[in-house]
């Protein structure tokens, strides 16, 4: 079931249907949405170790937004960012509902894993569209960072599947 926090969006294959300016606008909007999603999710999680990772992810998404805004400004000086209505892949929205146990958290993390995976692919596609080595490196960097987020969330998800093991690990240490 798709919840209010998730908007499916267009498949990754549609990247080539948009201009680079539109794609950067989508990327900035997606980073803002992901940051707000993680911030709101962290507010609803009681497990401190998981909360800390989610807060870290929110901070990372904020850094990505700043990098993308800087790139946009360098490519389109003086222009307001264009935020297309459409977007590629899932667009995360702030969590507005109360979470009731592990299953709610697991569901949201599954969507976040999917969104991070598509974000990595999205930036890899944009890398092929930009024209300078610096911009290509930035897109590769963002793609790699999103892959890292994917694996961080996947590891937490696997631990959460065994709630008893997760709670024991949180008492053992890193």
Brief summary:
With 174 residues, the chain is mainly α. The protein has helices at residues 20-43, 48-75, 102-127, 133-161, 163-172, and strands spanning 6-7, 91-92. The protein has five helices and two strands; from the N terminus they run βααβααα.
Structural class: mainly alpha
Q: How many beta-strand runs?
A: 2
Low-pLDDT sequence parts: 170-174
How are helices and strands ordered from N to C? EHHEHHH
The largest beta-sheet arranges its strands as 1-2
Which oligomerization state do the chains in this entry correspond to? single chain
Query: Separation of termini?
Result: 34 Å
Mind describing the biggest β-sheet? 2 strands, antiparallel
Instruction: State the helix count.
Output: 5
Large-scale geometry: elongated
Mean pLDDT: 85
Work out the radius of gyration. 17 Å
Topology, element by element:
Elements: E1 6-7, H1 20-43, H2 48-75, E2 91-92, H3 102-127, H4 133-161, H5 163-172
Antiparallel strand pairs: 1-2
Helix pairs in contact: 1-2, 1-3, 2-4, 3-4
Describe the structure.
It is a single chain. With 174 residues, this protein is mainly α. Helices cover 67% and strands 2% of the residues. The protein is built from five helices and two strands; from the N terminus they run E-H-H-E-H-H-H. The chain has helices at 20-43, 48-75, 102-127, 133-161, 163-172, and strands at residues 6-7, 91-92. Strands 1-2 form a two-stranded antiparallel sheet. Helix 1 runs antiparallel to helix 2, helix 2 runs antiparallel to helix 4 and helix 3 packs antiparallel against helix 4. The longest helix is centred in the C-terminal third of the chain and has 29 residues, at 133-161. The chain is elongated and about 45 Å long. The termini are far apart. Mean pLDDT is 85; it is low at 170-174.
């Amino acid at each position: 079931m798709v919840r209010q926090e998730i908007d499916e969006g267009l498949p990754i294959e549609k990247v080539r249907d948009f201009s680079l300016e539109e794609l950067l606008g989508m990327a900035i909007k997606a980073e803002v949405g992901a940051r707000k999603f993680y911030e709101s999710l962290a507010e609803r999680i009681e497990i401190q170790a998981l909360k800390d990772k989610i807060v870290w992810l929110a901070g990372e998404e904020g850094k990505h937004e700043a990098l993308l805004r800087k790139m946009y400004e360098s490519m389109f000086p003086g222009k307001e960012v264009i935020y297309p209505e459409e977007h590629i892949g899932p667009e995360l929205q702030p969590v507005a509902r109360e979470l009731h146990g592990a299953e709610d958290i697991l569901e949201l993390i599954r969507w976040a894993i999917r969104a991070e995976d598509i974000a990595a692919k999205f930036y890899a596609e944009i890398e092929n569209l930009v024209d300078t080595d610096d911009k290509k490196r930035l897109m590769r960097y963002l793609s790699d960072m999103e892959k890292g987020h994917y694996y961080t969330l996947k590891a937490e998800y696997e631990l959460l599947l065994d709630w008893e093991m997760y709670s024991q690990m949180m008492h053992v240490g890193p």
